Amino acid sequence: MRKSSSAPCWPIWLLSHQFIKVFERNMSQPWTVRYRPQTTRAIAGNKVALEKIRQWLDSWAEGKPSKGAVLLYGPAGVGKTTIPEAVARERDWDLVEINASDKRSGEILSRIAGLASTQASLFSKGRLILLDEVDGINLRTDSGAIIAILRVIKESQFPIVLTANDPWDPKIRPLRDACLLIELKRLGLREGIPLMKGILSKEGVNADEEALRSIMERDRGDMRSAITDLQILTELKKSLTLEDTALLSSRDRTESIFEVLRIIFNSRTVAQARRALEKSDLDHEMLFQWILENTPSQIPNRHELERAMSALAEADLYFARIRKTQSWHLLSYALDLMTAGVAVAKETSPGGWASMKFPQRISSMSRSRGTRELRKGVGAMIGSKSHTSSRRGTKLYLPMIQFIHEHDPEKYRQIAEWLDAKEPLDEILSLEDDLAA
C-alpha cells in the first residue's frame, strides 16, 4: 500500500505557481493590512450602508431592537469584515470574531458564541460579535450550526454582525429572516481611484491615472484585489504606467463552462491549463465534476486517459482531505492535478470535436444533499448557452424557466432540449415542487 503524504513530490513544471506564493510570502507587510481603515469615517464608499449600521448600533442604547443581528452581504473586497472591526475600534468595544465556516460543529459554535454573547466584558465595555462567512457553513459537517446561530441571536445581550457573499443561499434563509439585511457594494472609479492615490502617495509611488482606472475596471471594485495588485506592480519600482497593468491576470473575465473545459483539455502548457481557473466562476469542486465527466470523451487515447484519470483521482483525494480536516493549504495541489495534471496527460493532438455534457454525478445527487450544487451546474449550462455567467444563469434565468415549466410545458421542453439539460432541469423542478408542497 502506498503511503500518503500531505505534500507530494512535484515535477519542476508543476511548481511554477509555488514560486509566486514564495514571492508573495516574502513581500513586505500587505498593503491591505497596512492601510486597513481604523474607523468607519475612513472607509471609502457605502455611506448609506454605514449610516444604517450606525443607526442600528445606536438603537441598542434603548434596549435590544427587534432585529438582534445584521447581515452584511456583498462580493469579496467590499469591507464586510473591515466595517465591524472599525466599528468596534472607534466605539472602544471588544470584538469577538468567529469564522462560522471554520467551526465543524454547531455545538462548538454555540458554546463559543454563546459565552461571548452573555458574559460581561472584563472592564464592562461594549462588545460586538462578528460571525464571518455564514454562507460558507457546510450543513453536512457543521451539524446544528444554523440553529446554534439563531439561538445566539435570540439570547445575545450584544449586537451581532453576520457576513455573507450570497445572502440568498437557501441554507441560510433562517438567518436572513432573523437579521437586518444591509448590502455593501463595490466601489466605483470616483471612490476607488482617490483611495489608491492616497496609498501610493504614502508609499512614494507615482502612477498614471489610466493605470489606476485599468486596475479598478479589471478588479471590478474589489478594493482588496486592487490594493494587492498595486503592491505587486510597485514592489520593485516607484512608478506605475498603464503598460504595467498588462502583467495582471484578468480576474473579472469569466468564460462559459464549455470554453473553460476547452482550455483545459487543449492546453499545451501547465500555466495555460492553470489559468483556466481564473476564467471560471464555478466553485472548484463543481468544476472538478465537469472535468471528470468530460475527460473520457475528450481524451480517447487509453494510455493518456489512464494518466488523466489518475490525476483526477489524486485531486479527489485532496478535496476529501480538505473537507475532512479543513487543510486548505492542500487546495493548490488539488487544483494543479485537476487542470495541469489532465492537460499534460494528453500528449497527442486533439482529434475530432466531442460534445461536452452535464456531470452525471450532479444529476444523480440525492435529496439529502439538497439542490444547491445541481442548481449551480444547470446555471453553468444556461450561462454557456446565453453567453453569461453561471451565477446569472442560476439567479435570473432558472426562475424564468421554472415559470415557463409551470405555464407552458411544450415551451419548457424546447428550452430544456436546447440547453441539453432536460434531466437535471427536471430533477431540480421536481425537488423544488416537493419542497413547496
Number of strands: 7
Return the string of H and E elements.
HHHEHEHEHEHEHEHHEHHHHHHHHHH
CATH class of the largest domain: Alpha Beta
Number of domains: 4
Protein structure class: alpha/beta
The largest β sheet comes out as: 5 strands, parallel
**How does CATH name the architecture of the largest domain?**
3-Layer(aba) Sandwich
Integer average pLDDT? 77
**Strand residue percentage:** 5-15%
Radius of gyration: 24 Å
Helices, by number, come to 20
Q: CATH homologous superfamily of the largest domain - what is it?
A: P-loop containing nucleotide triphosphate hydrolases
Spatial order of strands in the largest sheet: 2-3-4-1-5
Shape: globular
Low-confidence stretches: 1-28, 250-254, 365-370
CATH topology annotation of the largest domain: Rossmann fold
For the terminal residues, how far apart are their CA atoms? 50 Å
Estimated helix fraction? 40-55%
Main attributes?
437 residues, alpha/beta, Rossmann fold, disordered N terminus, Helicase, Ruva Protein, domain 3, 4 domains
